[in-house]
Here is the input.
Amino acid sequence: MTTTELALIEVRELKVQFDARRSDGGKVLLKAVDGISFSIQAGETFALVGESGSGKTTAGKAVLQITRPSSGSVRYAGQELTTLKGRALAKARAGMQIIFQNPFSSLDPRMSVGAIIAEPLRLAGKFDRAARHKRVVELIERVGLPRSALDERPTNFSGGQRQRIAIARSLAAEARFIVCDEPLSAIDVSLQAQIIALLQEVKREFGVTYLFISHDLGVVRFLADRIAVMYLGTIVEHGPAEQVFTAPLHPYTRALIAAVPIPDPHIEQQRKGKLLIGEIPDPTSPRSGCPFASRCAFAQARCATEVPLPQQASVGREVACHFWRELPAPLTFLPARDAGNRIS
Amino acid sequence: MNILSGIAAAFKAHPFGAAIVLLAALGALAAPSLSPFDPTALVALPNQPVSATHWLGTDFLGRSVLARILYSLRPALLVALITPLLAALVGVSIGVVAGMSGRRIDALLMRFIDGLYALPGLLVALMIVAALGPSLWTVILALSISRVAVFARIARAQVGVVTTADYVDASRLAGAGPLVIIATHVLPNISSPIIVEAFIAASTALTTEAALSFLGLGIPPPMPTLGMILREGLPMIQYAPLPVASAGVAVLVGVLAINAVEDLVRRVLP
Amino acid sequence: MSQPGTPAVLEMRDLRIRYHTAAGKVIQAVNGISLRLERGEVLGVVGESGSGKSTVGLAAMGLLPFEARPAAEGELRVRNRLLAGMSAAELRAMRGTDIAMVFQDPMVSLHPQLTVNKQIVEVLEKLSGHKDKAHRQRATELLRQVGIAGPERVAQAYPYELSGGMRQRVMIAMAIAGEPAVLIADEPTTALDVTVAAQIVNLLLELRQRLGMAMLYITHDLALLAGVADRIIVMYGGRIVESGDIRDIYARPQHPYTRALLGSVLRIDRPTRELRPIPGSPVDPGNLPAGCAFAVRCPERMDRCTLELPMPVNIGPGHVAACWRLVPVNDRGPV
Here is the structure.
């Protein structure tokens, strides 16, 4: 990917591995993130998409160094973060923030909402009490909550309202780069649009860059400039969102898109029978070759033994598949064999 | 204003508990002025029953039982107050340091705490007092040490829960160092169980001190303590049960008072 | 479609359910629901939290909590038998045989300490009334029917060893064991990955075909429903605001709420130009306003809407909506 500007976030061969225990008691290495590389330009919304077990949440936390990577490089505004600790890391991470998936554990239940939003201001050290208060009032109203909310505890608020508070907190920290980790999952469907709208306004007004992690492809299609599709810890495809959605190249991306229902009965009636079989395999079991091979309808002998490296399909577009050029054009998808529903 | 109105409301809800607290506090603080007699002076014939001049009679030496009880409330209060404070200070510090440090230091500290926890409280207190010689402060020290482990464990467990919470990650991202996190997030969130434990420690301190005094290893004379009164009165219990009875009741009242205060505190705190 | 005159497998007439909380508050969960589910049909029940949709499903199973039962009014019939008159034993006999339910989170609904086999056999024993060696075989057969390859191994597993999709298949196996006439599915795929959800939906439709089962499919997901339901009812504040054939409603939604819901779905097959969030928050069933519950958030609200409950209006064959805007002008009264 060629760019004349320095990317805001530059990730290279990021790996995050955990020691885990299998259900039978054996110790095993869990490769949550298995070597991913991508970059995010300032001002864009980059989506990391995948289902459970894809490693997308771990990847997001690893970029922020909340979870420390096992290996690989993460550069923020040109500075390498993985080698820093303590004060140096805190300084280098200035401007990085996160909106968590669970709005019920992301706010300290013992603090008042005002104190929660003021905390980053206090940590920055450059505001006196009056200035802090003024800023906090500005922010709480900016996210659509009343001033009176400042004296209350988070427990009095709904999931959607808490996410607004979390967004206000990020703004207080003068965030330039916000990782949104499935911010809509715990919110009522009719309220999700409100939060999406708020995130967009914040982006327009403050020029924030988003790493948007989600499994909801409809939301991603609306918000994302570029997307990367993850499966079992690797990126199988990435590129401009519009292109990936209209012309997906990787078999998994195609299956994923084919599985998302469309609110039109006529279309849905005709889409039957094109299903991805099986489920995501045990992430702790050893694997060779392409991680998707066990479920891929187009898999061949090579796929089981040789790991496909990302290949450039066009400008800004990469696919990790041996046979992406040979896949049939229409989005049809027939199970070639029964991969079985193994116990995970 | 919030606290005062809270206290008033709590008093209204539990008049009996409130009365006990006030009584005990008054007695403890105002003992010297309330007491009509010197607790060490011989004021009448020994083993006298209840009378107009001596409301609780006299003990085996002829000293006023009422005076001795009133004066013994002071050290009791001191012990009940200071022991949990000291134990909490040390215990919570150990627990917080263990929880915020790396695996090795954590393991080291908590194994030490486990060892301390395994020893029976009374035994530990006895050993320390015996080694250092009985005095008010060695007793307080001994009792505190015997309670440190519980506080450390509670604190460590809570710290574990809090530090893995998302909001702490958010704070770290905003630049908060470990000290800030401890002050802003850890301590307020562990305060509840610590406060509850503090009151338990207070009651235990009271009764353990009485036990130590009863065994002769508590605060030495001339200061009268409830345990001492119990011990002195025991041989005469068939003829002059008053000293034993009043000391026993006083301990009971003390524990009830501590419980009443705890209830009050829990209503006032959020 | 069924022949006219045959009784519906599930029928509700003006069902009203109120919960009395311990604090003395009254929650009007369901406020006059009428529906008919014919044999082999899939009726979608759409609503958000607080709409009462889950309560409707529980009511059909006779599973309302103690706080609600005395306050349930209206008629509820399963296979033409009135639920209100049934004893506890009759209700128990009905469940699994005539009507069964699949819940949202199988991790919570399956017993964590019993193997899959034991749980299915338990259901079979209850259905047949006695223990039988053949149950074990039937259990394995049921697992195969719900698309589990290697069912013998899965039967020996505990729920925690299985993936989300597998657990849901197990739940479905338990539900269809008695070949019920009605299956109530309450958000069966919400907790699952999208590719797995598609498999489960496919399975349910397949079973409906094979067993002639009718389904009450409860969900908030309008896109999902498009591929599942024949007819739908849209619930808000415990009432039906619109109902009819799914194709009619999706093509020409009449009620402002239905329109807003459909309009707020972010589609994957075309770019959405403008985001149109519904203002406000879903109505609190413990605090229902007079008049139309949606009026407060409705972009087309009139004065009458906050005063009087709108009556259902016939839009077309089988298509009904309850909105004052749909009533012909001279019938509306003073505006």
